[in-house]
Amino acid sequence: MKSNEAKMSRMEDILNLPVQDPPYSEFSAAHFNWFKVEGGRQGGDDIALIPFSRVDDFVKGESSNADCPASFRVESRRKRPEGSLSRPRVDGYLEYTLYWCSYGPEDYRDSEPHIGENSSIKPASGKGSRPGRRHMMRGCLCHFTVKRLYTRPLLALIIYNQRNHVDKTGAPCHGILDQESVGTRAMYAPRISEELRQKVMAMLHVGVSLDTIVQHHMEEVQRHGGPHIRDDFLARNDVRNMERLIRNACHELHSNVECSVKMWVQRHHKHVFYFEESSGSETFVLGLQSDWQLQQMLRYGHSGSIAFHTASGSKRLKDTLCSLLAFDSSHNAVPVAWIITSSSHGNNNTHKWMLSLVERLRGKDTRWRPHAIIVDDPSFQLSVIREAFQCRILLCLWHVRRGWLKSLLKHCHNFDAQREMFKHLGRILYSAGNVSSTAVAVEEFLQIYVDQSEFVEYFRSKWLPKLDLWFNCVGTLPVAGLEHYASIESYHLRLKSRVLSLLVEKSHRIDLLIHALTTQFHSFYWFDTYIVETGYFENLRDRFSLTNPWYQAEHISDMDVLLDEENLQFAKVVSQADSSMAYTLWNPGSEFGLCDCSWSMVGNMCKHTIKVAIYCRSRQIARPLLSAQVYMETLLSLLQNLPDDPLVLGHAISLVNRMKQDIKNMEDLSNCGLLQPVSSGTNSILAENIQPLPRIN
Ligand SMILES: [Zn+2]
Ligand SMILES: [Zn+2]
């Protein structure tokens, strides 16, 4: 521990102190240079400035002190509204939190039973006692204060009032430096860690039995050579208490749903990154992200893709639920944040929560940056997303594809018509670069299939009004690869069966949605990751985590794809379960391909479609993908109409160069498996056309 004894700062100067942000996920007092202040209430105390976003990391690190494992509880907390002070003191607070070591401040050492003893002395209870905790208080005086500064809300001032875990005589009172603690629980942290608690809760939520959890825990402790930290002493009773907690948990904290949500937010403020109540013209917005989700977003989102999945307007879900998805190493979509907004305003309030979310991530890692954001709703405020994440934006056509296909399967009863209409609809979207030809194409489609009246009716009422918005978006944004659609769809199906199905029609209680998302549904994803990382509980894997077609497609051999390059009407894929059978895939390689396997025939994206898309791309057969086509059309129209004005020409050249860079970036993305490669045919056309350009000046 270094401290800067030589220099005493005056409180007025604290803002000149360096802001310390150690590059570890958790850190403690030992990682800081401490300063002392002169005079005043804090005279002689150690102080340090850290980013406010890292206070929790400090409290965690400080709790896992090797000599003195502890846990710091909030002893008191005060808040002041912004704008309430006209002349704030330099150390004036917006939030004031006093953390105290759980082994203090009271001292009940005389009545403490020793570990392993079946004591009949129950800790006293009543006014002023801390039920269930009193028996372990050993008079520890270690405590510190955290002030979120009024004038600098992004900074926290830590004032360490007593650094050592000692009692009032100045002697160590717990941990390995305390002779009396050796061999008792007081040698360890007073409670199990938040991580272990979450782990047990998640296992209980997904249905692992109490016995299995205890058994698994004991095996793990044995594996690392017997107990040596508090977590290792997890008792059957601890697990039973958590089980009871889950059983008694109720989503309805108040009969009034708004009060209920507000109470939930107060109790779970750590998992809320944005909250705005609905009032007057303001819509309701709630942004949810657990610590674990934050870690996953940092881990898989950096240099990876983040996709939006928007669900709204169903009978059960009146509000809009937007899930942000990251993709793990098995291409599974992992929800890394949820945003619930009152409906109709949909995505027009993106700017409100998005900056808070990105600030949260950058607070943990200033270099964090995704490679691409995949949006699924053309009404998104793209400039807000671009500014917040500072990366490229791709468009996801999964909702369109699924909507059209589901309706075709429902309203048309002839497979040939289904696949032909589906292909035709895809062609219309392909022509999105040119709005006049799009209108003609739509009209033509509706005339050709006029006898499919049910579908035509659906298409007219549901899609015609918003088709321009989609065309516009397809014309300006590159389109994400089919593989992502498969993962997003797996997420969608799991969300539907595990969360949306629990919602009650016509009741629309947001608190029920919040409860379902943050308890069992969150636990399923936590548990999947735990299985993958540890290899335990393979037999308990949820079927949804095993049915991601992108992942499955990678296990189909190229030999099983039968494709006639002279006739690209269809391809065949040998069944993986029965090699004497093959499935036929129409319009191979396209987003609008249709396979005749049972999974595809109920409107889902099957592994055969994905496999053939990957296959076609790697051999550069079939048409170039939509994204490449849009680039090519824009570029060719630019080249055919070269402007005379040198200023406009200069701008055009810089635009072309940017596009060239974009295509190169997409190739880089595809090389690391994150995006489909751009067809080399397209690239060579582009390259030929681009080369003479720089010489024009
Ligand atoms: Zn202590
Ligand atoms: Zn299939």
UniProtKB/TrEMBL annotation:
One of its GO terms (molecular function) is zinc ion binding. It comes from the Eukaryota. The keyword Lipid biosynthesis does not apply. Residues 583-617 form the SWIM-type domain. The keyword Metal-binding applies. Keywords: Metal-binding, Zinc, Zinc-finger. InterPro entries: Znf_SWIM. Residues 112-133 are annotated as: Disordered. PANTHER family: SWIM-TYPE DOMAIN-CONTAINING PROTEIN, ZINC ION BINDING PROTEIN. This is SWIM-type domain-containing protein. It comes from Salvia splendens.
